[in-house]
Amino acid sequence: MLKRCTFITEITITYDDEQRLVFINSRALRLGFCQYTLLAFLLAKQEGNDNALSLALYRQGADHSNKALVRKNISKLRSRLRTYGLDVRRVHDRGYRLVSAVGELV
């Protein structure tokens, strides 16, 4: 069942948990388990701290190694999302936030 991202309005984003597919302005983006899990979490909640993202991915709290793995997967996800006008930003003391980068594309 397709779900829709409601907080980013300038881009149409829908996603399907069963197929791990994300549709951004009707363009399909297939992601691996870790990247999809992170993106689906951010699409549902817009923002997530290290502990919440670690729990979503690994079913355990954010220790040093889990934080490093979350950072690595966020980095890979960022590079995949750039071409679609999206970015994942690090927010000091809060975690990561999914934002539109449409106005920033050059």
General description of the model:
The structure is a single chain. By secondary structure, the protein is an alpha+beta fold. The protein has a single domain (2-104), classed as Orthogonal Bundle (Arc Repressor Mutant, subunit A), CATH 1.10.10.10. It has three helices and seven strands. It has helices at 33-45, 50-58, 64-81, and strands at residues 2-4, 13-16, 21-24, 27-30, 47-48, 86-91, 95-100. The strands form two sheets. It has a four-stranded antiparallel β-sheet with strand order 1-2-3-4, with helices on one face. A three-stranded antiparallel β-sheet has the order 5-7-6. A hairpin with a 3-residue loop joins strand 6 and strand 7 (95-100). Helix 1 (33-45) crosses helix 3 (64-81). It is globular and about 35 Å long. The termini are far apart.
Tell me the layout of helices and strands:
Elements: E1 2-4, E2 13-16, E3 21-24, E4 27-30, H1 33-45, E5 47-48, H2 50-58, H3 64-81, E6 86-91, E7 95-100
Helix pairs in contact: 1-3
Based on the model shown, name its key terms.
106 residues, alpha+beta, Arc Repressor Mutant, subunit A, 4-stranded antiparallel β-sheet, 7 strands, 38% helix, globular
Strand adjacency order, main sheet: 1-2-3-4
Give the SSE string.
EEEEHEHHEE
CATH homology superfamily: Winged helix-like DNA-binding domain superfamily/Winged helix DNA-binding domain
Number of domains: 1
Using the 3D structure, state the CATH architecture: Orthogonal Bundle
CATH topology: Arc Repressor Mutant, subunit A
By DSSP (H or I, 4+ residues per run), the number of helices equals 3
What is the terminal-to-terminal distance? 34 Å
Name the overall outline: globular
Low-confidence stretches: none
**Global structural class:** alpha+beta
Beta strands, count:
7
